[in-house]
Amino acid sequence: MSQTRKSLIFRIRDAEDSHAWSEFVDIYGPLIYRYGRDRGLQDSDAADLSQVVLMEVAKSIGRFEYDTNLGRFRNWLLVIARAKLSNFFKKKVNCNGSGDSRVYQLLHEQPAHDEQEETWRHEYREHLFRWAAEHVKHEVEDLTWQAFWQTAVEEASPKDVSERLGLKVGSVYVAKSRVLVRIRAKIAEVDDTMGQD
């Protein structure tokens, strides 16, 4: 595995590398926030969960061993997010004997671990795709981007897209392929396991 592909995970081990941490938070903060919201947390609680998880990552990243045979980074991040979410619910239930039935109900409605892992994997992949796509969008011409987006995301036929955009069908295929390559490369900068499962 090349150093470049793992660089963000290794770079965040250096507390002085503020650029790496900023990039890490930009990528993973919204994912963790959405994880909390999807599990019933209010806006401020999901934001708090995101902060707590990111602080735990900062504290623990030095012990994380990057070996895809042992486990993926996203799985390690899910374990942290799940534990912090569980702690949040337990604190809410036990807080001053509040008896808040909504919190108790949310705690018991949480999906099983296997279902959570599958949902997390899907959310993680979708989030990284959209993050990378947003970056690549600004690196290519608008016509190239439209050809890619309409065929790859909106699933329009290359023939229809070629007619709409005034391109040859072959040019639509080339645009889609080139943008996909760039998106995959952008994702590989932060996660080299996206296409492996």
Write structural notes for this entry.
The chain has 197 residues and is mainly alpha-helical. It is 73% helix and 0% strand. Helix 2 packs across helix 6, helix 6 packs across helix 9 and helix 7 packs across helix 9.
List key phrases describing it.
197 residues; mainly alpha; disordered N terminus
Strand elements, count: 0
Percent range for helical residues?
over 70%
Rounded to an integer in angstroms, the radius of gyration calculated over CA atoms is 20 Å
Poorly predicted runs of 5 or more residues: 1-5
Q: What is the helix/strand order? A: HHHHHHHHH
Proportion of strand residues: under 5%
How many helices does DSSP assign? Answer: 9
Shape: elongated
Task: Give the structural class.
Answer: mainly alpha
Main sheet specs: none
Termini separation:
17 Å
Nearest-integer average pLDDT: 81
